[in-house]
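User: Hey, quick favor. My workstation is busy. Could you predict this chain's structure for me?
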Amino acid sequence: MYYFISLSFLVVSILLNHAALALFLGILFSLILNPSENFISKKIGSPLLQIGIVILGGSISVASVVETTSSFFMWISIFVIATFFAGIFLGKLLKVSNTQSYLLASGTAICGGTAMAAIAPILKAKPRDYNVVITIVFVLNAIAVVVFPIVAINIGLTERQFGFWSALAIHDTSSVLGSASIIGDKAMEVATTLKMGRTVWIVPLVVFSAWFFSEKRNNSGLPIFVIFFAFAVILNYLINPSEGVEAFLREINKIFLLSGLFCIGTQTDRSIFKDLNTKPIYMAVGLWVVIVPLSLLLVISLI
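Assistant: No problem, here it is.
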């Protein structure tokens, strides 16, 4: 019975195609049914995420993204790097745990749940870390989908300007597209293209994180899945597969990442709620309060 219910929840997680909801369904399954420590989903979360990361590397056409976003790629890159280090600094200032701080900084700078899922195995993040950071990002994304279009209409942003703004300031790709769709087709086109320029920063993030944290553990070797990830990115660049192949790889990647997050969620137990605190919330909101107006000013000045 447990396996049937967990499989049903997993299928729903994949169909919903949202990192936070996949994790929440895993948490819900665990809290309601309280599976044993030997339950299979509690053992395979990290391996599934790692496989998903490797496939993600094969679906990222770095050359195509840079070519498409060449006019703004420099600004996107500067904004991503500045946001990441500002997040790390704010996390230190607020005394947020290193893992949660790094996850939030990465998710805010690049692409929300996907970036956090990509580096979580490197950080050896615990389920409680996932719960806190993805919940925060989920709430901020939900707010953004509603608030961003209202602001844009009231201050008179063009569709092109709004597409750039949403691509810079909103975390998850799904929420970027959701907000842009309210404004118009041109906004969606611009948001999709420029968001991919931001997403490509997952590549250096994963490689840097693997090197940095292996050094801190006095282990100079990169995790094997990071080596495969880098190899997949290089292979994509050399082979230059068709859009159909890349789209297929993205679908497979989605299945593995969402499945991994669901399984991570099933590792939760009721004691986790004792570890919740407001510091990571202050960090995420504080960082976003700075990013949103700065990105808007940048967009207005460039377009």
